[in-house]
Amino acid sequence: MRFLRRVRIEPFILAILAAVVVAAVLPATGGAATALGWVTTIGIAVLFFLYGARLEPRELLAGVRHWRLHSVVLAATFLLFPALGLLGSWALTPVLGEPLAAGFLFLTLVPSTVQSSITFVAIARGHVSAAVVSASVSNLLGVVLTPLLVFALMTRDGAVVITWDSVGKIALQLLLPFVLGQLLRRWVLPVISRIRRLALFDKSVIVLIVYAAFSEGVADGIWSRVGPAQLAWLIAACCVLLAVVLGLTELISRALGFADRDKRVVQFCGSKKSLATGLPMAAVLFVGQPVGLLVLPLMLFHQIQLIVCAWLAGHYGRAEGSAAPAV
């Protein structure tokens, strides 16, 4: 565990990598694949129900007074990122192929992370309460905006196909559980608050989704199309994407005259992409397609953003000295 903390690799990421390895050696096929599909379907619905139950509506409304700050974060998440994703997918298609290039675009369409965004803002001595609101609003709107962006940007050239069956699954697996979680929050939250290892359930569902997606890819023989050169190009593209967004969010924050603690909110909340939200969405949106290839860019970007932003937050925090995080 000490070694993992030193190299900034979370056990969760190792579990995801292990799921990829197991899928490559022992993929789920036949009846096992069918059973796994049902388990992941139920798990995704429960996951989004819990997302809805955890979000505090009053806390979100209280953050309206920081509307300018939150607008910039949302613009970075749902406008700047998709624009860069379109440009990147167009440029990368010749070297990555359509599925991976489409996956690169998809990673730019998912909402921001919640926990890591808030954690990095706190480490950087930023405006923590504003980070809670921005990250939560991003996930709240992402349940609707991400599928809409996928419809608008990823179905034009036929590389990704979204059917009415997928629309129904989005409503049943994502939106309905999320809304029910919000409506039943008063009764559900006291129960789930007493469950100590609830985060383990969230991560287990994600690992199962990864295993299912990569098992399907192995069974279909699609991994023979991903070579070392493609992987190197993809990693480089993810690094460039993160660097551009981190730089632009810093410049935009300065141009708008934000205080340093608000700059940290824009930079860390506006530069993240959520693996926990993006993978379940991909499993619902891209049924019958090479999901493994489509989510690989998001998985790589997630780890890269954790490493880079952990270092950057520590740098900001040390520069601010020993002052307590602003709340």
UniProtKB/TrEMBL annotation:
Q: What keywords is this UniProt entry annotated with?
A: Membrane, Transmembrane, Transmembrane helix
Superkingdom of the organism of origin: Bacteria
Transmembrane segment boundaries: 12-29, 35-52, 72-92, 104-123, 130-150, 170-188, 200-219, 231-253, 274-300
Q: Which GO terms describe its cellular component?
A: plasma membrane
Pfam families, per database record: SBF_like
Which InterPro entries does the entry link to?
Na+/solute_symporter_sf (IPR038770), Put_Na-Bile_cotransptr (IPR016833)
Query: What is the name attached to this protein's record?
Result: Bile acid:sodium symporter
